[in-house]
């Protein structure tokens, strides 16, 4: 905005870490069971998330 008085600082390290987390969530949402939360218990849901992250990190 042209009328902004103080420009916020840009931290490239924080931006890189935030981008990494956002891409991880995007990969999680590709799996239908995780995106719609089919599991009823938190334990099973967490196990599904761990499984998906292991598979996606193994593939890519």
Q: What this model shows, in words?
A:
With 60 residues, the protein is mostly helical. The protein has one domain. The chain contains 3 helices and no strands. The longest helix has 18 residues, at 12-29. 0% of the residues are buried. Residues 13-54 form the Transposase IS4-like domain. InterPro entries: Transposase_11. It comes from Acidiphilium multivorum (strain DSM 11245 / JCM 8867 / NBRC 100883 / AIU 301).
Q: How is this fold's topology laid out?
A:
Elements: H1 12-29, H2 32-35, H3 42-59
Radius of gyration: 17 Å
The count of DSSP E runs of length 2 or more, i.e. the number of strands, is 0
Q: What structural class do you assign from the helix and strand content?
A: mainly alpha
Shape annotation? elongated
**Low-pLDDT segments:** none
Count of folded domains? 1
Query: How far from one another are the termini?
Result: 39 Å
Largest sheet: none
What are the secondary-structure elements, in order, as H or E? HHH
Number of helices: 3
What fraction of residues sit in β-strands?
Answer: under 5%
- The overall pLDDT, averaged over residues, is 85
Helix residue percentage:
55-70%
């Amino acid at each position: 905005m042209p009328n902004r008085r103080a420009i916020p600082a840009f931290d490239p390290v924080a931006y890189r870490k935030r981008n990494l987390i956002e891409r991880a969530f995007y990969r999680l949402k590709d799996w239908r069971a995780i995106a719609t939360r089919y599991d009823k218990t938190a334990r099973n849901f967490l196990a599904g998330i761990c499984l998906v992250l292991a598979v996606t990190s193994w593939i890519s």
